[in-house]
């Protein structure tokens, strides 16, 4: 049976990506994966690892071309927050750090509130607040 899950994303420049995500308040592992061309981004309370690999290394692992994020979305990474205000704050931090967002934060289904930002390499991050007390069963 599987033991862990981690995601791998191609980036043009690991140092710039680390600086970007650090400005958003994320942390990185200093153990395995912390090299000149890769970084282990830690996400959430369980420290899910999102490995950031510079494009040549990623291309070698994937044995495939890298998706052109300017033409499409290869994955939507969703993360949750503790409040609507934190959704807005994290999205604004992403913009201030050089990311993009043309998505207006909005309520969805009466129990979710979310926004979207695009990181330096075009990866889309869906930032959500979910009020589970309002969720219909």
What is the topology?
Layout: E1 6-11, H1 14-23, E2 27-29, E3 38-43, E4 48-54, H2 55-62, E5 76-81, H3 84-96, E6 106-108, E7 112-118, E8 124-130
Parallel strand pairs: 1-4, 5-8
Antiparallel strand pairs: 2-3, 3-4, 6-7, 7-8
Domain Glyoxalase/Bleomycin resistance-like N-terminal: 5-30
Keywords: Dioxygenase, Oxidoreductase
InterPro entries: Glyas_Bleomycin-R_OHBP_Dase, Glyoxy/Ble-like_N
Folded structure, characterized:
Residues 5-30 form the Glyoxalase/Bleomycin resistance-like N-terminal domain. This is Extradiol dioxygenase. With 137 residues, the protein is α/β, with parallel strands linked by helices. It folds into 2 domains: 1-64, 2,3-Dihydroxybiphenyl 1,2-Dioxygenase, domain 1; 73-137, 2,3-Dihydroxybiphenyl 1,2-Dioxygenase, domain 1, CATH 3.10.180.10. It contains 3 helices and 8 strands. The strands form 2 sheets. A 4-stranded mixed beta sheet has the order 1-4-3-2. Strands 5-8-7-6 form a 4-stranded mixed beta sheet, covered by helices on one side. Strand 7 (112-118) and strand 8 (124-130) form a beta hairpin. The protein is globular, with a radius of gyration of 16 Å. The mean pLDDT is 93.
Task: Name the descriptors.
23% helix, 137 residues, four-stranded mixed β-sheet, globular, 3 helices, 2,3-Dihydroxybiphenyl 1,2-Dioxygenase, domain 1, alpha/beta, 33% strand, Glyas_Bleomycin-R_OHBP_Dase
